[in-house]
Amino acid sequence: MASVQQNGQRFGITEPISLGGPTELDVIKTRELEKHLQDVGLYESKEEAVRREEVLGILDQIVKTWIKTISRAKGLNDELLHVANAKIFTFGSYRLGVHGPGADIDTLCVGPRHATREGDFFGELQRMLSEMPEVTELHPVPDAHVPLMGFKLNGVSIDLLYAQLPLWVIPEDLDISQDSILQNADEQTVRSLNGCRVTDQILRLVPNIQNFRTTLRCMRFWAKRRGVYSNVSGFLGGINWALLVARICQLYPNALPNMLASRFFRVYNQWRWPNPVLLCSMDEGSFGLQVWDPRRNPKDRLHIMPIITPAYPCMNSSYNVSASTLRIMTGEFQRGKEICEAMEANKADWDTLFEPFAFFEAYKNYLQIDISAANVDDLRKWKGWVESRLRQLTLKIERHTYDMLQCHPHPHDFQDASRPLHCSYFMGLQRKQGVPAAEGEQFDIRRTVEEFKHTVNAYTLWIPGMEISVSHIKRRSLPNYVFPGGVRSSHTSKGTWDSNRRSEHRNSSTSSALAATTTTTEMSSESKAGSNSPVDGKKRKWGDNETLTDQLRNSKHIAVSVPVENCEGGSPNPSVGSICSSPMKDYCTNGKSEPISKDPPENVVAFSKEPAESLPIEKIATPQAPSQETEELEESFDFGNQVVEQISHKVAILTATATIPPFEATSNGSAFPNEAVEELEVLPMRQPDAAHRPSVQQRKPIIKLSFTSLGKTNGK
């Protein structure tokens, strides 16, 4: 394989981190990865591939017939009628070559200026499709951010978008990758064209398409297994993962998928968000379309994990990511990095990396969002609308609690077989890790939930029967239909990487606590030995029946590292631990907002270790949000040189973590000079106004002592 350097071509905005080629081990591991992906069914059969091509051919003939029909109806002359044409393009996973069995095909219909979106695409073409027996499950969505029609053609799922170009004739060899295609195009057409333009640009910007595809299949499968594949839920969708993988391919242009997967986790575990991921320099363009630029656009400064599309107009494809979902994904990157390192030492395998995340074991508290409708068609519409709003609930909870209450949305809905017109969504809840609960603090999110429900019920197509309810539920009260086979396991997962890491973390924490307690006891005895106390010279000994809990209870001034699962709900990644004060006190509130415990402090966070039935959301307590809060929620859219790489890898990643330099207009007025993109300062994030913060009782700082140095001092 010829290296990129030898070909004289460079991909990306920075130099590669490594140009080294694969080792024998990389070749073996890559074969194992490809076999694993085959065994789990990620590749479609040849018969299905042929059927997809046939369906696309049929669809192309349908739109050509449609354009002839409406051209004749609009009275075009014979010459224009003869050359009237519409063309089908594909994009998304199918165009990238990473689709699996049963996946839908993202398609774009490009039509001439006289074929309108409202009257012709959602009119005549929709009518034609509805009358064809081979077309089923036709669902037009004309009011979506990117209008589309979804349907099945001969059993193959199709999402069809429409772009109306200001041309009288659409040539059969039309190249939509040229920026000139956007001239005089309406906003919805620009959005519709964006998918195809971005997909084609990605394939042009990666050094080896086959290695890119295998690595992307791997990362998509991993993200789905770990519950972080969902753009609408605030994680990342297909295009986001494709852009991230493409950047790694640029940084390691001669690497095989085994190494690319490993470096994926290493690079993004160290990435300094909100610095953006860029595959190429951003073009200001000449058509006046808005591009992503946090120096000019205030809303762009709110994006915390920007992944920029490479085609003009460059946009942030990951605007849905929130502080909580970024924290979850960062934890998953850390986990992936550790497993890949273990794989290099033959202590783990691909099965370990792809272990599914046990969402309903990770937290003690959940939000359950239940929706229902009168019939199947209404439920489909209602689900689509509610799913698009769930991100706002996460953002509002984070904002109204000043990021102290963290949410982990599950990317999928669940349905009870006994209630076909009902489905549920779940969010894991936990207090911010590493921050001790302050006395006097409470989490009352009733107002937040009511705002969310009010927003959802403002659905323009709402009809009676569309209902939504939100409630707080404990882990032990989760409905059985959320578990595989509808059966709740009697014990937590054991033998997995995650469970082993939790056990190691728990044992480490317990050992540290016991060692600290014992050392403090010895110090206390030594200090008493020099006094005139009646107990001079006596060292306290733990009784045979005294447990570790008793020891911790008696040691009042020690900061103890508590495992994540002992805090409010746990973390999806045990490596992201927390330091809590011990002993830890958790309470829940009753229906009258009174703590259910023996005289706890007022306004304590409503998390409990005690059994509880499903509680209404009114029973969770959070700080009141500012009465007039401005909300800006967007609605858019190794190798040969191992030693050298180990030494310079972190520096290289920081170099690759490039952002746009502070805005200074160039001589031609452009915000993007032709010079190389420089390293930037991190843009400040908006902080809540201190005047609106609830009063929280100040806690005494924890004084950390070095027992070794104190022992020497006492000896002196």
TrEMBL record:
UniProt xrefs under CDD domains: NT_PAP_TUTase (cd05402)
Compartment(s) where it occurs, according to its Swiss-Prot or TrEMBL record: Nucleus
Record key words, sorted: ATP-binding, Magnesium, Metal-binding, mRNA processing, Nucleotide-binding, Nucleotidyltransferase, Nucleus, Transferase
Any single Gene Ontology cellular-component annotation: nucleus
All residue ranges annotated as the Poly(A) polymerase central domain in the record: 211-355
InterPro entries, alphabetized: PolA_pol_cen_dom, PolA_pol_NTPase, PolA_pol_RNA-bd_dom, PolyA_polymerase
Residue ranges occupied by any Poly(A) polymerase RNA-binding domain in the UniProt entry: 359-417, 421-487
Keyword Nucleus: yes
GO BP, one annotated term: mRNA processing
Catalysed transformations (reactions): RNA(n) + ATP = RNA(n)-3'-adenine ribonucleotide + diphosphate
Assigned EC number: 2.7.7.19
Residue span(s) of domain Poly(A) polymerase nucleotidyltransferase: 12-206
Composition-biased stretches (Low complexity): 508-527
Record PANTHER family: POLY A POLYMERASE, POLYNUCLEOTIDE ADENYLYLTRANSFERASE
Family as reported in the entry's similarity comment: Belongs to the poly(A) polymerase family.
Protein name: Poly(A) polymerase
